[in-house]
């Protein structure tokens, strides 16, 4: 595991403390052949799946942390353990100094939990009714409720949606309303599992801006998972990456780029449709005179790249971009897979 | 102090769900009234078969037609109370919530699970039709039987209704616990079990063989939901059991329900649920 830019944390300063947590699941296995069916009847076959393998990490109060990993890596399992929905097999978890299992009710007053593929809103009622429901169930003081309602209504542009029935909202609108409801009780820590799932660019942008705002202005600790690594990089200061249930990286995004190499994409627009021989990097794709290469600048310094490119005849345009973080992650996961 | 606070929260939440039910009703009154009318027609149809048979033959199993009507009225009131307090959000059919992976929504509320389950199902406006129709049938039967109504009798009636209601709820939760271990197959188990009880409870058991009577008062407690308490309120004893018999059974079923539900919940938080259906969640 790589640790980058981590500072020591005092116990009072810790919002989330995950200590040597292991979680296993049993998966039923069955053969489709007749013999397999009979065998299953006598003794069913089960496979032990290690969802989390001795995971430890801490998140300081006010931090905005991304939690990334491929499908089945254990992201949602971690979120459910933190929210008290699942018990770990081994290890301990504390959120805001409370145990999600033993102090569930007290903890739920202090944190907010949102799963992107679910809603906490009341389907057959206007959005405002769900907010009222939250006020009573969470026993939110009137003044706090009014202030928070005004804030989320303005920041998430909800005014026109408050009287609309939830079942008539689009996915983006529903997610905004869910997010607004999440914040009505002034949570100190927010756990978000895939909140940008299925959202369009505008809805995603609005959500990212809002989360950054509550993190910066209200010092709310946020732990967020997403498949969209570029979104995570924009939102969070730190990233935790898990692969096959193990914590594979804990640090800043810049450190991640360093580990994966300084992957850069160079796009050349040529006068002709002939692929230019640049002599370095890896050719990715090309058509109609536009050719894209991947170059690792730690191997091929930028000065050399520019020098070589200046010697190629017929270049009309050059574009140099950093490789998308998703590609960096994919490369990392591939290399970790090979190692294990 | 804590009891007082819990009690206050309980009524606060009941009030909240009552308001939400009213707002749902007022959103679309025509369809709400239609649904309530359908409920009444369904209830009356369910009991009319037995009543018409008793009318045609001058009673069933030693009960005259008015006594049969009294028993059917009692059964309908119990059913109405169940609908009133446990219809909303499938609180009376917990196997659905378990089978659909919706229990996770409950963990993230700052309320105990019993508090949530005792309040979320309250629908005083849209689920009261059975209670009204049952009450009406019950009053007609009381009038026909010329029963002497005393304060003590009313108190006994209320206690009997509460015990019958709790017995149904306990049976529902007891069977629902199976859904923790087999969520797909047992998702609707409480519906099937309660439907079976609903069909069986309408039959007067007076002249049935003792083994059947005992079975329907113990292992399949349909007789405890209407027949036994109705007989008790009419001043007749059954199988020599005392009036406290339904209460003892209710306590046993409730304890078993609590034990197996807790055990199931522990299993749930160990295994989790890899199934989630939004259907029926907060609708």
Commentary on this structure:
The complex is a heterodimer of chains A (340) and B (283). By secondary structure, chain A is an alpha/beta fold. Chain A folds into 2 domains: 219 residues, 3-Layer(aba) Sandwich (Rossmann fold), CATH 3.40.50.300; 79 residues, Alpha-Beta Plaits (2-Layer Sandwich), CATH 3.30.70. Chain A is 34% helix and 30% strand. In chain A, the strands form 3 sheets. Chain A has a 7-stranded mixed β-sheet, with helices on both faces. In chain A, strands 12-13-11-14 form a 4-stranded antiparallel β-sheet, with no helix packed on it. Chain A has a 3-stranded antiparallel β-sheet with strand order 3-2-5. In chain A, strand 12 and strand 13 form a beta hairpin. Chain A is globular, with a radius of gyration of 24 Å. The N terminus of chain A is likely disordered. Chain B is globular, with a radius of gyration of 20 Å. Chain B is built from 13 helices and no strands. The two termini of chain B are 35 Å apart. Chain B is mostly helical. Chain B has one domain. In chain B, helix 2 packs antiparallel against helix 3 and helix 3 packs across helix 12.
In summary, what is this structure?
The complex is a heterodimer of chains A (340) and B (283). Chain A is α/β, with parallel strands linked by helices.
Please name the defining characteristics of this protein.
heterodimer, A: 340 residues, alpha/beta, Rossmann fold, Alpha-Beta Plaits, 2 domains, 7-stranded mixed sheet, 4-stranded antiparallel sheet, 11 helices, 14 strands, 34% helix, disordered N terminus, B: 283 residues, mainly alpha, 13 helices, 68% helix, 0% strand, globular
Major beta-sheet overview of chain B: none
The CATH level-2 architecture of the largest domain in chain A is identified as: 3-Layer(aba) Sandwich
Class from secondary-structure proportions of chain B = mainly alpha
What is the makeup of the main sheet of chain A?
A: 7 strands, mixed
Number of DSSP-assigned strands of chain B: 0
